[in-house]
Every structure is written in C-alpha cells, then in structure tokens.
Amino acid sequence: MPGPKGLDPLLQSAEGGTSDRFLKKGLRLGHLRLILALERTGHLSRAAELLATSQPAASRLLTEMEQITGVKLAERQGRGMTLTLYGERLAARARLVLRELDEADRELENLKSGLAGSVSVGAVTGAAVEYVLPAIRQTRVTHPLVNVSVEVNTSDVLTAALDDGRIDFFIGRVPAALDPRSYEARFLDHEPLRVIVRAEHPLTRLSGVTLQDCVPYDWVLQPDGAMLRVAVEAYMRNKGIPYPTKVLNTSSILLTLMVISQTNAITVVARPVADFFTLGGEGGGRIASLDIAGDVPIQPYSLIKLASRKLAPVAQNFHDLILSRASVLE
Predict the structure, then answer these.
(1) What's the CATH architecture for 193-290?
(2) pTM for the model
C-alpha cells in the first residue's frame, strides 16, 4: 500500500534509509580519491601530491569526510597517517565505486565507438549465408563484446520488422507496393537460383533436365507473395510451364531441407544456399543441386535501412562490414 504522501514503499525506503545519506551530506568523488590515496601512501602530503592538490586542501577533504561519516577515518602514526578500521572499510567501498565508474566510462566509450552493444540484422536466406555469416565471424574476432541478432525471413516480413524498429537493417528487397523513398538501399548482388532435391532423386539420374520435368513432383516453396516464389511463378508463366499442383508453403529453410531430403519434393533456393548444402557437404551428401533455374530473373538484393533513422555506431560497423564483403565478392 502507498505510504504517507502517496509514496511507493520502495521509494519511501530509499528516502528514509541511509542509501544516499552520504551524498546528501556532501560526499564527493574527491573524498573517495583521497581515502584511497591515503591508504596507498600512508602520508597526507604524499596523498596530496598523488591527487595533484595541496596538503591543506587534502587535510580539508579528510576533515569533511570525517564530518560526513561521523567517525574517525585516519590517525597520525609517527610521521605518517594510518587508516582506522572505519577508514579501511570506506576505502574498500570507494575502490568499488571508482572501479564501477571506470567500467561505466569504458562501456560508454565502447558504445560510442561501436566496440560493444547490440545489432539486429535481417536477411533473406541466400544473403544470410553469403554476407551475414562472414560478418558475424569477423565481428567475433574484432568486436567480441558485440551481440548480434539475426532474423532470416522473406523480404516482406523483414521490411515490416525494419519499419517496427525490431531490426536495424536487412539484406533483401523492398516490396514494390511500398514507397522506396522511405528506405536507403545499397545494391549488393544478384541472386542466381538453383533447384535442389535429395541426392537419390529420380531427376538426378537424367540428363538435360528442365523445369518442366520438375512440375509433376511435390514442391516446397515460400508463401504466396514472397519474391522468390513470385519470380519462379512469373518465369513458369512466361515460359508456358504449368504451375505445380502439390505445393507445401513455408518460409522455414530447415523444414524445407527436411522435406526434400526425405521425399522426392523439389525446392528452389538461392545459389549460396544450394552450394552450402551440396558443395560443402553440410547436407551430409543427401542434397543435390540441379542447375536448371539459373536464368530465372529475380530482383537483386540490397542492404536496406530506413532513410530517416541513423544507425548506432555498433550497427553502422556491422553495416559497413557487409558492404566491404560485397566489394570483395565483386
């Protein structure tokens, strides 16, 4: 229940407790530095030199600290000065406070320079393999404190995520229905397509296979409206090839691979994805690529961010890594 004057109990506790009593009575960082300098040197004059101040000023700081805390913090011993038990305890706490401030300074500098922080990036599947994975590997080496989140999906889903602020930028295509002036797009690459099937698929035993030969089989395609699917359907329509009638719709590349590796189903993917699961052997020898969709025209993908939003340094660094990757692949 709210206490007097409608204050929340937690706020009342902080107000009435001792958590900020020293600050209210005037304790400053200069006081904390002095108690640590005294602990280190054992002399008031040397502590003053360490802090680049005069001995009278250091003596005044010590007097202020003792008035604020209400206890004796140091006492003379011969020509030097020794901390009391109270002084030792305060010095230990002062060390923690100043260390935390140093950590805060480093953390803020890292955030400003892009050395630390979080970046959220989206990508269509082919671009995730070709661009995002290499950028993540490099970031792990050069910026180990950066946390990278990746959403792999279709361009329309990624555009919505960008508009909602859930990702910083993505690699894909801006849907034609949207105003392109709202986005800043940097061309990256064309996206050749490949048909992939299980390694023992009947089509792998034939020569001169065409897209027409694939129609009777089950297909796994991205949902209606996804740009890769639209491109494949437009190509088939222009070539007079009938649409497949047995289609599983999914945007999940994992489900797609599981289906085609266990059945005679067919799918169309970007060439980097096909290469990853065939040439590199990551498909365990169960996936084969059919080079029969390379001439399917599909809009090139770009690196896309909101034109009105300035990227944070950590996101800008990752953005630039992807651009540099594109220049290497040219």
Answers:
(1) 3-Layer(aba) Sandwich (3.40)
(2) 0.64
Domain range summary for the chain, segments of one domain joined by +: 4-111, 114-190+300-329, 193-290
Alpha-carbon dihedral of residues 32, 37, 40, 45, nearest 10 degrees?
-150
For the residues 137-141, what does the mean pLDDT come to? 92
- 96-129 as b/e, with b when 16 or more CB fall inside 10 Å? eeeeeeeeeeeeeebbeebbbbebbbbbbbbbbb
Quick one: pLDDT band at residue 14, thresholds 50, 70, 90?
very low
Distance CA(220)–CA(48), nearest Å, equals: 76
For 229, residues 6+ apart whose C-beta sits below 8 A from its C-beta are: 221, 222, 223
Question: In CATH terms, are 114-190+300-329 and 193-290 the same topology?
Answer: yes
Distance separating alpha carbons of residues 295 and 304, to the nearest angstrom: 25
- Enter the CATH code of domain 114-190+300-329: 3.40.190.10
CA pair distance 323, 320, nearest whole angstrom = 5
Domain boundaries 4-111, CATH class: mainly alpha
Dihedral angle over CA of 47, 49, 52, 56, nearest 10: 70
* Residue 287: partners with Cβ closer than 8 Å, 6 or more residues away: 196, 197, 198, 199, 257, 260, 261, 277, 278
Task: Give the rounded percent of residues in the chain with a pLDDT score beyond 70.
Answer: 91
Q: Are 72 and 84 in contact (CB under 8 A)?
A: yes
pLDDT beyond 50 at 9: no
Secondary element (H or E) of residue 122: strand 116-123
